[in-house]
Amino acid sequence: MRTITLIVVHCSAVRPDQTSSAAQIDTWHRERGFHLGIGYHYVVRRNGEIEPGRPEWMIGAHCLHHNAHSIGVCYEGGLDIRGQPADTRTAEQKAAMRTLLGDLHRRYPRALIVGHHDLNPQKACPCFDAAHEYADLNGVRAGASLKL
Q1: Catalytic annotation on 127?
Q2: Tell me, what DSSP letter sits at residue 48?
Q3: Which of the following is catalytic: 41, 125, 127, 134?
Q4: Is residue 22 a contact partner of residue 52, using CB atoms and an 8 Å limit?
Q5: Is residue 146 predicted with pLDDT exceeding 60?
């Protein structure tokens, strides 16, 4: 069994007029050479539907140097209509992500919820401050900083 120390939040980097289901991401990742397909464990669609990706017991392919000890959660979106990084999450996505992340954190209580950007500052992903937004799930009091 894997020891999970991180829950990494991602965006799929698509514009509002584009879609990115788990099946589509699986195809894109296979085209990029991911022989096991989709690198994320979950995809949260704009309507709030949570689609499974890789099984949690499998190592993901979503965050270099952190895959062995993390769960990857990706939301559909992350770019504005011009293709620039933006927090495009819908109210349904925000609610579904909070529920999913809360459930994952209960099952992996030692795991910190962070954004991809927190582990790779060259990335804009997930286009919002996930560590701050989910600080309460991480057990961090308001105003305190999260140490990675």
Answers
A1: no
A2: S
A3: 125
A4: yes
A5: no
The question of whether 123 is a catalytic residue gets the answer yes
Report the C-alpha gap between 109 and 96 in whole angstroms.
19
Q: Which of 62, 116, 117, 127 is catalytic?
A: 116
40 an active-site residue?
yes
- In this predicted structure, what is the pLDDT of residue 24? 97
User: 132 catalytic, yes or no?
Assistant: no
What is the C-alpha to C-alpha distance for residues 98 and 103, in angstroms, rounded to an integer? 8
pTM: 0.93
**Which residue, among 24, 113, 9, has the nearest Cα to 62 in the 3D structure?**
9
Among the options 29, 62, 105, 123, which is catalytic? 123
C-beta neighbour count of 7 within 10 angstroms: 25
Give the position of tokens 């509002």. 16
